[in-house]
Design goal:
- An eight-stranded mixed beta sheet has the order 1-11-12-13-16-10-9-4. A three-stranded antiparallel beta sheet has the order 5-7-6. The protein has a three-stranded mixed beta sheet with strand order 8-14-15, with no helix packed on it.
- The relative contact order is 0.14.
- The mean pLDDT is 95.
- It folds into two domains: 98 residues, Helix Hairpins; 309 residues, Bira Bifunctional Protein, Domain 2 (BirA Bifunctional Protein, domain 2, 2-Layer Sandwich).
- The protein is 41% helix and 20% strand.
- The longest helix is centred in the N-terminal third of the chain and has 38 residues.
- Helix 3 runs antiparallel to helix 4.
- A hairpin with a 7-residue loop joins strand 14 and strand 15.
- It is elongated, with a radius of gyration of 27 Å.
- The chain has 13 helices and 18 strands.
- The chain is of the alpha+beta class and 428 residues long.
């Protein structure tokens, strides 16, 4: 959501920002609704002032025993006119909010222009690609050969884009999540949260999934929405709040299932676990002071990178281009892990700074020290990281010629000191 006063003052900048996202100018429509609302508000104030005067005059006339019928008729007419103006104001305000709620965040000046992921800017590459003396396999080939990834049974239970994990691979998946949560809480200063997985409309509205992306979500018959990411409940923890400046930054993390309909992804990543309707993720959310959100963005990204470094995985960090940056984000770093089975990099974490875009929708503010007024907080979110994709990366990067998978040292204490997952130990 946007500051309408800023759009009034800088309509050309607003339209230029939308143009960077490939969108048509919207300032004229925004200001038309805003103008209609403000006109109705001004007229209402004038009528209210006249109504107060007339009501006072009625009282004075009655006190003097004078005829007040004309004044009383005027007040009745004013009441009807005010009701009409209130309806006009409400309609204009609703149309303004509807328009603004569908407009994405404006991009930071250093976001590269471009159409899609091919135009992302590589910021850094960390580690070395593993060398194999054999042709590396993809994760689903490895998992199916071990009898530990079962897509066929999952399809019988739920349809496509689901998986059943068994035995040591299920444990490795759980170990990755526990490792990440421990790292972020014990080393990176995040507070662990166990949030609801079902939320109401206003919660998804607050983080920008509604109304524009309703088809990407799963909704129950009772009106709940399954969370697409823990970003949704975690960010909304401060919805409607006025925080003290000393409380910032707030850093929280959660390990949750996530649910996405993957609307528009037909034909993409149909094999394996890369794009599923249900997956697990460790999420990082920060509520920051506006003057510190850019620094917090770098910090959050480094926390996510630290997970991959501890697992010994090769990756790169890119800044998404204008055409690929998400709806609510002002700037996004994608962390892309190397998958030797695919011979390519794949996104395993997105870390975004949303500035005050979500905070305005949620009405989340803070009171600066020594000031009477309030300011909107800045919100940030990132994957710390996607657990299923981390499992894929470990399987493909730690695979051996016989199809077994070495367990990274960082995870062995979570795995009962198991060092290898192999066919002979698949039932362990």
């Amino acid at each position: 959501m946007f500051d309408v006063k800023w759009i009034r003052d800088f309509p050309e900048d607003f339209d230029a920002g939308l143009k960077r996202r490939g969108l048509e100018a919207q300032s004229e429509a925004v200001l038309a609704f805003d103008g209609a609302r403000r006109k109705a508000q001004t007229a209402l104030q004038e009528l209210q002032s006249r109504r107060n005067e007339a009501s006072k005059a009625i009282g004075e006339a009655k006190r003097k025993g004078e005829d007040a019928a004309a004044l009383m008729d005027e007040v009745a007419g004013l009441k009807e006119d005010m009701a009409n103006l209130e309806a006009e104001e409400r309609t204009a305000g609703e149309k303004l909010e509807e328009l603004l709620s569908g407009i994405p965040n404006l991009l930071a000046s250093d976001v590269p222009d471009g159409a899609d992921e091919a135009d992302a800017r590589v910021e850094r590459t960390v580690g070395e690609k593993p060398a194999f003396s054999f042709a590396p396999k993809q994760h689903f080939e490895l998992g199916e050969a071990l009898g530990l990834l079962d897509f066929e049974t999952a399809a019988k239970l739920s349809g496509s884009r689901f998986v059943v994990m068994r035995g040591p691979l299920a444990r490795l998946h759980r170990a990755l999540a526990q490792f990440m949560i421990d790292r972020h809480t014990l080393e990176n200063g995040y507070t662990e949260i166990a949030p609801p997985l079902l939320v109401r409309d206003h919660v998804l509205y607050g983080t920008g999934q509604l109304p524009k992306f309703a088809e990407d979500q799963f909704r129950t018959e009772e009106g709940f929405w399954l969370i697409p990411t823990a970003e949704v409940p975690l960010t909304n923890l401060v919805a409607g709040e006025i925080l003290e400046e000393a409380e910032l930054p707030i850093r929280v993390t959660a390990f949750t299932p996530c649910f996405r309909s993957e609307a528009g992804s037909a034909g993409k990543d149909t094999r394996g676990m890369l794009r599923q309707h249900q997956f697990d993720k460790v999420e990082l959310v920060s509520i920051a002071h506006p003057d510190q959100s850019e620094e917090e963005h770098e910090r959050m990204t480094a926390c996510a990178e630290g997970v991959l470094e501890a697992l010994g995985l090769h990756y790169r960090v890119v800044t998404l281009c204008s055409g690929d940056t998400g709806f609510g984000a002002r700037k996004t770093y994608d962390i892309e892990v190397w998958l030797p089975g695919q011979d390519t990099y794949r996104e395993i974490s997105s870390c975004s700074n949303c500035w005050d875009f979500q905070a305005r929708r949620m009405k989340a503010r803070f009171r600066p020290n020594g000031e009477k007024g309030t300011r909107f907080v800045h919100s940030l979110n990132g994957s710390g990281v996607a657990v299923g994709r981390a499992l894929i990366a470990v399987m493909e990067n730690y695979q051996q010629a016989d199809g077994s998978i070495r367990v990274p040292e960082a995870l062995r204490s979570y795995m009962g000191n198991v060092e290898e997952i192999s066919a002979g130990k698949a039932g362990s």
